UniProtKB/TrEMBL annotation:
It is found in: Membrane. This is non-specific serine/threonine protein kinase. ATP binds at residue 342. It comes from the Eukaryota. PANTHER family: LEAF RUST 10 DISEASE-RESISTANCE LOCUS RECEPTOR-LIKE PROTEIN KINASE-LIKE 1.4 (PTHR46008:SF2). Coiled coil: none annotated. InterPro entries: Kinase-like_dom_sf (IPR011009), Prot_kinase_dom (IPR000719), Protein_kinase_ATP_BS (IPR017441), Ser/Thr_kinase_AS (IPR008271), WAK_assoc_C (IPR032872), WAK_GUB (IPR025287). Its EC number is 2.7.11.1. It is a single-pass membrane protein. One of its GO terms (cellular component) is plasma membrane. It comes from Salvia divinorum (Maria pastora). It catalyses: L-seryl-[protein] + ATP = O-phospho-L-seryl-[protein] + ADP + H(+); L-threonyl-[protein] + ATP = O-phospho-L-threonyl-[protein] + ADP + H(+). The chain crosses the membrane at residues 247-271.
Amino acid sequence: MHTFIIVYLNIYTLWFILVSRSSSGIDYRYETCGPRNCGYGPNISFPFYIKGLQNPYCGFPGFMLNCSSNGFPSLRLSETEFIVKEISYETRSLRVIDSAALNSDSNGCVVAVRNVSIPTAQFDLADNVTKLRFFSNCSDSILKDGGFVVGCDGRGRILTMYEGDESVGAALRSCERNTVAAVESGAEVVEVLRRGFVMKWRASECSTCERSGGRCGFNETTYLFRCFCPNRPRYRSCRSEKNRSALLVPAVIFGGAVCLLLCILIAFLIWRCKKKRSKSGLQTTNSDIEESRNFYLGAKIFSYKELMEATDCFSSSKEVGDGGYGTVYYGRLGDGREVAVKRLHEHNYRRMEQFINEIKILTTLRHKNLVSLYGCTSASSKELLLVYEYVANGTVYDHLHGGRSSLTWPDRMRIALETAGALAFLHRSDIIHRDVKTSNILLDTNMSVKLGDFGISRLSSVDATHVSTAPQGTPGYVDPSYQKSYHLSSKSDVYSFGVVLVELVSSRPAVDISRRSNEINLASMAVSQIERRAFVELVDEFLGFGKDGEVARMTTAVAELAFRCLHVEKEMRPCMDEVLSALNEICEGHHHHFGDGIFSSSSIQFESE
């Protein structure tokens, strides 16, 4: 009996020490993610973090700040450093100033202003922000007639105009160079540059966590929001942690009193206490899991059972598409919405990366020509399923090469324009699609484009010229320079889009082994024909190339544009904004044929068969 009592006293003492330590220790992430500053300016906390002072998990991806030489926090956009002067966490906004503007003197000396691309996945400009254009190397007439003229002691004069000024068009024609800065309207150029402008950010809401005494953060492994509490991280708030701590102290005191009064009952009390704690912990865990199941990376969570019912247990009769990474099924949700459900192949070891990729891209970007993501299953579900809007009219590939009705030339031109617009939007958001092809260009009932399949897409840094990664994509569309160097850039999408343009003009598939060996690759065949000016061989006769002069003009111009997109040197290819502009010019009849000098037999190479 004596030994029995000693054993249980030792067990209770050990349990008491462990519980006391767990309740009194401060979690290192809670301490690390406290507000910090650079010496001047606002205190920095979630969604921002200061490189070198706070860990990346203290902020949201894409919200890193640095401490500038003047002691203020700074944010880098494109190649420009912006000083962060003010942050309002209540309105989720910040005021930034181009660091170069701080060097502009009061005599009107304006340093060089560079174009800046605002990453729309993270920030929106405030409603009162407008564009201020800077024109240089201008003719004397425009310097006298329009805008504000500024300069440094009379040298290097720069003409400035707000967007919408009636003289902007004349300045564009009379000046050699122009750049655009974001500003708030005002009279003096130096004044508005020094005042900066306001941006609003997009990131997970932090107020629930902060009100409960926690500090917001981000799990870099699971891509989930985390609330760092004094004892340990939680999903949304520290409320359950506080409740647990409040109950813990009386439980320990009560246990100690019982132990002192009647040691023989310790075994029973420990068993009952452990049972209570286990049940309480299970309820808390279940509550946290249910809370996190509502959304994953901003996407609504659907249950596996719900999607099974929507697709009739993934019936083969509901299958509408199949690719290398997954099968797509038609489904109807309980609320009546028609959806497309992508079921990622289980044997594909990259499926989790692709699953996260599509969710991250489609929940942060919105464009009329990008397919909409309704939601997904949870990352721990039996299967990884993605739920999209249902696009009822099939793919461009189906219409060009399948059993669907043939596309008229106006339809094809609109498809080219809308696809180019979607890709240009992605590139401005630093997203590289990596798998541009006609089977990934969907058409709705109005024949409008919905670009889809972002499983292998990549985010490119605004400071990097390329991303190093193993080649992926579809034969016939893959950039040959990417295959050789493993250097992926937005120009790789331009090459793939060039193949799509040739398909729209010729109605031939990108790869066809029934063609002659030197024509199996459509890009190789098309460039040969364009170099020889043999457009009558390239263009689908159904389009009326020999009968309609306007069709002949436009198809020839589109083929020449495709030729530029297919250049072996990626630096020689146009960017997607330039491609979009060229297509608009072709539609408006302003496009001129390129000279024969661009058609050099050594200028284009293609991926090996």
